[in-house]
Amino acid sequence: MLMTRVMPCLLLDHGKLVKTVRFKNPNYIGDPVNAVKIYNEKEVDELIFLDISATREGRKPSFDMVREIADECFMPLCYGGGVTTLDDIELLLKIGVEKVAINTYAYRDPQFIKKASETFGSQCIIVSIDVNQNVFVKSGTEPTGLDPVVYAKRVEAAGAGEILLTSIPREGTMSGYDLDLVSSVSKEVKIPVIAHGGAGKVQDFVDAVKNGASACAAGSLVVYHGMNRAVLINFPSREDLKDVLAHFDTPQTKV
Fold first, then answer.
1. Looking at the predicted structure, is the pLDDT value of residue 214 above 70?
2. Alpha carbon distance 83, 61 (integer Å)
């Protein structure tokens, strides 16, 4: 495994695999379990699934759907969406999820991350931070007015083990990561930062790591193919990733 992790970040909407652009206009991609089977064959390092409608609709995670995904998944799995209680986290971990991403409720209840990390260990608690100048919650629909660096330091102090940092204006555009955002947050926290939002080519991973990211997540790049964005579940070859990222895999890389 490369120390610089590269992982698909896939979106769920009522049990369907979708892809958005700037958090809007979800486009149907296919069945999430079938996608997992393909990523198993591609031997990806980790897999992230985010339910984009659970929090907006005020509902719990679709535990049966997550269990079905986890049963098929051969690699470490992260799930986020609708998580509001320690019981939610406990059940997700029991059904096979290794990491739980928390977004809105980390903002609503600042003590929740502290309680979660103390109960289950910080290694399985990720705080998802969505940014459009300031931090947004509720699937990018509600601004908080918080500076992303200030908020990142706050959730780190609360016990988060990682940060999934998403640029809303770049998400789904395949135009490259917001490197200023990645750099500004990464240099102010000691926990790993997963860059997300904008990956369009392998070189974008290199640029993110150069700017402090410990890992990279990609959406459109791994579900589309070609200029016309034909749906194709795919992933860069391990050889291609090693060629461009191997020299970053030093003990100094945050993992």
1. yes
2. 7
Q: Which residues are catalytic?
A: 130
Distance CA(153)–CA(160), nearest Å, equals 10
Chain centroid offset of residue 70 CA: 16
* CB of 254 closer than 8 Å to CB of 165: no
pLDDT in tens, 55-75: 999 999 999 999 999 999 999
Domain annotation for the chain: domains and CATH numbers? 5-244 (3.20.20.70)
Q: What is the pLDDT of residue 239?
A: 86
DSSP states along the chain? --SSEEEEEEEEETTEEEEEETTEEEEEEE-HHHHHHHHHHHT-S-EEEEESSTTTTT----HHHHHHHHHH--S-EEEESS--SHHHHHHHHHTT-SEEEE-HHHHH-HHHHHHHHHHH-GGGEEEEEEEESEEEETTTTEE----HHHHHHHHHHHT-SEEEEEETTTTTT-S---HHHHHHHHTT-SS-EEEES---SHHHHHHHHHTT-SEEEESGGGTEETTTTEE------HHHHHHHHGGG-STTS--
DSSP 207: H
